[in-house]
Amino acid sequence: MLSHDEFISALERCFYRAFRDTGGSERVANFLLAWENAPQFGGFDIRDMWGLDVNYSRDVIDVFEYMSDKPYYFNNYGFTPHLRKVILQWRRKLYSDDVLEEFRQVAEKVPIQPIYQLSIY
After folding, report:
1. Which residues, other chains included, contact 87 with Cβ-Cβ below 8 Å and sequence gap of 6+?
2. Longest dimension (CA), the chain
3. 8 A C-beta contact, residue 5 and residue 66
């Protein structure tokens, strides 16, 4: 089992990967958004793991394993701004311009580089 710090590091890497504009990034974003609210944002197709490189999939697996017995959301870990940024990237059509502007303001708080760099693959 991961330590809390290892989990936070893997979760942060997942977010920073989801911020990019690649197929793997979209798959990681789908995982994160499904965790937040699958009925609203769409589910995560487990077969999407086949389309991830080994580093992306390892982080998704690590995050899933850690959170599987902890009923928490991103706000419990301080990642609400990161989630807003992922929504802006991948699910913007679900929200009005006013809501998107609020999300932008929150997402601006996301550091350009990851803070937790315990083990970058």
Report:
1. 33, 41, 94, 95, 103
2. 41
3. no
Shortest CA distance to 79 belongs to which of 8, 22, 31?
8
Question: What does the block give as tokens for 20?
Answer: 């990019």
Distance from C-alpha of 49 to C-alpha of 119, rounded to nearest angstrom: 21
Give the Cα-Cα-Cα angle 116, 119, 106 (nearest 5 degrees).
25
> Using N-to-C axis directions, what is the helix angle for 80-90 and 23-41, rounded to 10°?
100
Cβ pair 103, 84 in contact under 8 A: yes
How far are the Cα atoms of 47, 72, 116 from residue 24, in angstroms, in the given order?
Answer: 12, 25, 21
The pLDDT tens digits along the chain (121 residues) read: 889 999 999 999 999 999 999 999 999 999 999 999 999 999 999 999 999 999 999 999 999 999 998 888 888 888 999 999 999 999 999 999 999 999 999 999 898 777 655 444 4
d(CA 104, CA 73): 20
The per-residue pLDDT for 2 is: 87
